[in-house]
Amino acid sequence: MHARAVAASTTALAGVVVLLLPLSPARAAESARAAEGTGGAAAAPVIVAHRGASGYAPENTLAAVDKAAALGTEWVENDVQRTKDGELVVLHDDSLVRTTDVEEVFPDRAPWKVKDFTAAEIARLDAGNWFGPEYAGARVPTLEQFVHRVDRHRQKLLLEIKNPQLYPGIERDILKVLADEGWLDRRHVRQRLIVQSFSADSVRTVHELAPAVKTGFLGTPPVADLPAYAAFTDQINPSHGSLTADYVSAVHALKGAHGKRLEAFTWTVNDAAAARRVAGFGVDGIITNNPDVVRDAVGC
Ligand code: G3P
Ligand code: CA
Predict the structure, then answer these.
(1) Domain assignment present for 172
(2) Is residue 40 predicted with pLDDT exceeding 80?
(3) Catalytic residue among 2, 50, 148, 258
(4) Of the ranges 14-18, 26-30, 109-113, 226-230, which one carries the lowest mean pLDDT score?
(5) Ligand 1 and 50: CB distance under 6 A
(6) What is the tens place of the pLDDT at every residue in 41-90?
(7) Which residue puts its alpha carbon closest to atom 2 of ligand 1?
(8) Is residue 66, in this structure, part of any structural domain at all?
(9) Does residue 41 sit in helix, strand or coil?
């Protein structure tokens, strides 16, 4: 594949028993919102496998997508970057060092940045052995390969544009691949795709190029700034560490770029206690390396 420069175009006794049992966090949040009169039945948060089920398989590989599917996880998150020759690949770091054997295969190519390697060179790398010998031979997938695998499992994709400052025009490139692979049709756009970034400019660009696509901004903007973000994004996706119920309520008080309630997916929540805490805040999504742990904790 090549660089793409073309625009792209979530009985009475029985009743007593229910009342006595503690509510799950998601149900508690729903109940609290109902009591506050903030309206609308709250759904349980969706669970998103962060970089695939990366607690169990090497992050951002097809094996991690497969593991997420095996765990019954509806959503998969990934990180997209661009090679020297314009291919879109799925990898978190801007360097290949941590998650591949690039230092062995190309010892003279420090600092081993993704942008300095061709797609053919990256395809030679092992992206699984660092995680465990049973994953030796796993490759860095292209975006095309990744979406094929997500589609095969009938999963949904939370696509993160990683380091867009390093890759001018990557938003158009991503949208072109998604269009070519059938991911910008009505069904995908309405139900199965969200594009997010830490870069507000990148999120805004996606919204302008493909207004139908649901978007998310990664971060925790001041509450006073949220209306400006809501003009071009449908989600505010904060780190869970400093998240509060009040912040989630402030997000929910606004309408996003498509006129629906602004949402909050929080990351990266890997233990049961944290999952219960954020579910109690009423978040719409929980992004986790361990989807089974979150599912068991939150009861969704
Ligand atoms: O999807 C949220 C999360 O992936 C953002 O942080 O560094 O893991 O890409 P990071
Ligand atoms: Ca990410």
Answers:
(1) yes
(2) no
(3) 50
(4) 14-18
(5) yes
(6) 467 999 999 999 999 999 999 999 999 999 999 999 999 999 999 999 99
(7) 267
(8) yes
(9) coil
Lowest-pLDDT range, 21-30, 107-116, 210-219?
Answer: 21-30
* Average pLDDT estimate for 201-219: 98
Whole-angstrom Cα Rg for the chain: 20
Pocket test for ligand 1, best of 218, 278, 286 (most atoms within 8 A of CB): 218
Residue 17 has pLDDT above 50, yes or no: no
| 50 part of the active site | yes
Residue 267 CA, ligand 1 centroid: distance in Å: 7
What value does the mean pLDDT of the chain take?
89
Task: Answer for the pair 209, 8: CB distance below 8 angstroms, yes or no.
Answer: yes
Find the DSSP H helices in the chain: 12-20, 25-36, 62-70, 102-105, 119-123, 143-152, 170-180, 186-191, 200-209, 226-230, 245-252, 272-281, 291-298
The angle at the Cα of 59, spanning 57 to 64, to the nearest 5 degrees, equals 45
Residues of the chain with pLDDT > 90, as a percent, come to 84
Q: How many domains does the chain have?
A: 1
Q: Which domain holds residue 156?
A: 3-8+47-92+141-298
In a domain, 21, yes or no: no
Q: Which of 77, 269, 270, 288 to mutate to test the pocket of ligand 1 (most atoms within 8 A of CB)?
A: 77
CATH of the domain at 232: 3.20.20.190
Residue 121, in any domain of the structure: no
